[in-house]
Amino acid sequence: MEFTKGHGTGNDFVLLPDPDGQLDLTPELVAALCDRRRGVGADGVLRVVRAAKHPEGAGQAGEAEWFMDYWNSDGSLAEMCGNGARVFVRYLIDAGLATPAGAALPVATRAGVVRARVEGQAIAVEMRRPRLHAGSTATLGGLTLPGTAVDLGNPHLVCVLPASLELSALDLTTAPGFDPALFPTGVNVEFIVAGEPIDGTDAHTLMRVYERGSAETLSCGTGACAVAAVALRDAARDTGRVAVDVPGGRLTVTVTDDSCWLSGPAVLVATGEVDLAGLPVSA
């Protein structure tokens, strides 16, 4: 099987070219590909398939040629991935499947059509405006931390840490607890603290994240957008530009009246073939 490996601020993916939707992708195969010791290793899999050739993308084929079929590293499906969308677009451009010129490039996802544009070495994607809709809590060890539920087409819970608790001190080797009534399909949990002011931004935050289906990752694009929305709310703003530092680098989020732009590096690092017979699953 041919593959490409890419990442956005350390959030890494195995991309599988399957333009005509002929690949028999299963949860077991996805988990095996993402295995960091016995597979290629990644936070998730991005299947590159024409929207018209995928049952979940066919309804969007009139708006976007390509569908981002995103799977978490445990083999579960996900609605959206901001960093994944940026890496997906980098692949389309580098593979000659799309051109960066002109209007923003549309990409179909389970959360709807998103649009991308090239900004020098960065790729930016436009997603829905984050919707802050409820208060809740996350539990971590003996801690109970208040947070805000945020909808970006996928679920998030953003927890601002108290001044007495350091971000680096959190133990994210196990999944945080959450309210299953509010998040029946699970949730991405972001933990944040304020950073030093940065010129040209309205807020600056530092973030760690435990992603649903992938454990702690070096970055989460939709998570950064959720964090930006909370940071702007706490600054008494509805819109603005926020720098979000994650363990894998820096993302910039611009929240407008009707959308949210996520910008940062998107890098392809390798292409090759994987021997399915060598994976820890019978594919």
TrEMBL record:
Enzyme class, UniProt record, top EC level: isomerase
Transmembrane segment boundaries: none
Binding site for substrate: N11, N72, G82, N83, N154, N188, E211, R212, G221, T222
Record's keyword terms, sorted: Amino-acid biosynthesis, Cytoplasm, Isomerase, Lysine biosynthesis
Entry-linked SUPFAM superfamilies: Diaminopimelate epimerase-like (SSF54506)
GO function term, MF aspect, one: diaminopimelate epimerase activity
Record: active site: C81, C220
Keyword Endoplasmic reticulum carried by entry: no
Catalytic activity annotation: (2S,6S)-2,6-diaminopimelate = meso-2,6-diaminopimelate
Alphabetical list of InterPro entries matching this protein: DAP_epimerase_AS (IPR018510), DAP_epimerase_DapF (IPR001653)
GO biological process, one term: lysine biosynthetic process via diaminopimelate
GO CC field: cytosol
Subcellular location: Cytoplasm
Main subcellular location of this protein, as a coarse class: cytoplasm
EC number: 5.1.1.7
Pathways involved: Amino-acid biosynthesis; L-lysine biosynthesis via DAP pathway; DL-2,6-diaminopimelate from LL-2,6-diaminopimelate: step 1/1
Site annotation Could be important to modulate the pK values of the two catalytic cysteine residues: residues: H156, E211
Family, similarity comment: Belongs to the diaminopimelate epimerase family.
Function description: Catalyzes the stereoinversion of LL-2,6-diaminopimelate (L,L-DAP) to meso-diaminopimelate (meso-DAP), a precursor of L-lysine and an essential component of the bacterial peptidoglycan.
Subunit structure: Homodimer.
Protein name: Diaminopimelate epimerase
Species this protein is from: Micromonospora cremea
Chain's gene name: dapF
